[in-house]
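quick one, 110 residues, struct below
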Amino acid sequence: MPKFVTIGYGDEAGYNRTPQSLRDAAHAQDAELLKKGVLIGMAGKPVQVRNHQAKAVERTQGPFMSSSLPVAGFAILEADDLEAAIAMVSGTPCAIAFGVVEVWPLETPS
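---
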């Protein structure tokens, strides 16, 4: 079954201006995804890693990409296709609380 990586972006301000009933439903959606075996996690502090030409490992604190909203969390899920993956995450907290969820098909090397 195809796998997908999701990245949720959102901030506390958007979350707080979302009605409590919608937030509760979104957290219930996350709980259902967890029951189905979806790997879900909140974003910690990132570290950039470089090792150009395998000469020296360099570490830089902080994200490489920038966005108007901070990264809030990640998930790895299995779905029949992209449309099914979108349906699975469309009711999650970042999607409903003025954030966004990116859905990336996970293409594995053959």
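The beta strands are 3-9, 39-42, 47-50, 58-61, 71-78, 100-105.
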